[in-house]
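Entry for 4'-phosphopantetheine complex. Fields follow.
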Amino acid sequence: MRRVVCPGSFDPVTNGHLDVISRAAVLHDEVVVAVFRNSNKTPLFSVDERVELLTEATSKIGNVRIDRFDGLIVDYCKANDISAIVKGLRAVTDFDYEMQMAQMNYNQAGVETLFVITNPLYAFLSSSLVKDFAKFGGDVSGLVPAIVLDRLTARLAEG
Ligand code: PNS
């Protein structure tokens, strides 16, 4: 079985993430979407909430499973019989960091990284921008799944 992982913070999942996940799902037997638990960033949504939102947002894609992980992604890959990491590349600004990370992961553990070039519709999109714009009244309805929009609106209203 060809199993790959899409790792990330997913705080929250956007339509850009879903584009990469669904395209990876066409090319592989199983895609595990793994939420990174011990990020330095202060999240808006808990890991449980992010897993729930991802589960709902990917429910129509049959070969996608949601999980969570701590520590190194390469260790998660080895423990879960995952042959490659799939990442989206939005612009050249992503490239340097992603290339370095991919080379390190291959050097350390022989784990490959496959890149999907982001759909230009979402090339500018990030979870951080979605949160920033939503916080100040921006309309992000076309950029995230409906359930994320609902939760985001509710969370931001809590202050
Ligand atoms: O959505 P993000 O925050 O850009 O995702 C970043 C993520 C989780 C993919 C990246 O930080 C990662 O792979 N972290 C796992 C830990 C790891 O293997 N780090 C390697 C350098 S210490």
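NOTE: The CA atoms of residues 72 and 105 lie 9 Å apart.
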